[in-house]
């Protein structure tokens, strides 16, 4: 029987609820999850209830030391409450971990003369630790002891990395030697979260690379985005390509398993936008990836009627950036993007970021019995 795996950048982060200056405490999400009545979160829950995934990665779900409680509140107060008379949905298993956003690097990384500890001087852009975090929710047991996280993996330790090419116009290094020694690859984190489905494991390879914009001539974000995506390409490519990788517990090497899904808002398209196309193209076209049934929607097509790729778009700003990429060991039964057209009664759920998110939920049905 197919299982449905989804990714949804839910915009459940502090600056979506208060003005920028007030979001520095990072507790806005917790307050709304306890209050049970925030309209944007109710719409997020309704979308999930309608699509009914078995496993879902939430991007931009703020992380904090009380994230387990936050996720429980989201499940109990929103997902287990019928939204617009839809059947409730439950996820007995979940995982959330720390991310690099808002974590003080101790250095002036963005070159503004002030080592602020936040925004561009953090290991990942953010106003507080855990900003723009992630969470995996599952109906199937998560093999907790086998989870691998790569929050601390250093960018410099990736062979042929693009960190070495981050240069100013005069050819000098954008990052100081000290910065190059401590910079982490992941702007949030990379996670390998194995899910137990029957007697098999399905590895949910989760991440949220930095947007390849908001920089300058040096293209530091574009190059980091490329290498964050390339990490997964190497991770699934076998021992020779993945030997350099080490996780946060010191275990070396890449994927140990047959079935996987690369999931996340990867902030890159091979045909549109500012990303270096070789990063995302290398992943999509990898022989261990099955992208034969790329998710599509009528809403995306009508949103960009003059764009040949419009049906594959997953964000309101007209690009495919959110991915659920199954391994070639899996048979894809169906896929889609939740994007109702403007004349659909459900369009109010996705019309803008305040309604739910500027991204759409993307899902794929896979059969592990192939």
UniProtKB/TrEMBL annotation:
GO MF assignments: endonuclease activity; exonuclease activity
InterPro entries: Endo/exonu/phosph_ase_sf (IPR036691), Endo/exonuclease/phosphatase (IPR005135)
Keyword set includes Nuclease: yes
Keyword Transcription: no
Swiss-Prot/TrEMBL keywords: Endonuclease, Exonuclease, Hydrolase, Nuclease
Residues covered by the Endonuclease/exonuclease/phosphatase domain: 35-359
Domain of life: Bacteria
Name assigned to this protein: Endonuclease/exonuclease/phosphatase family protein
Native source species: Glaciecola punicea ACAM 611
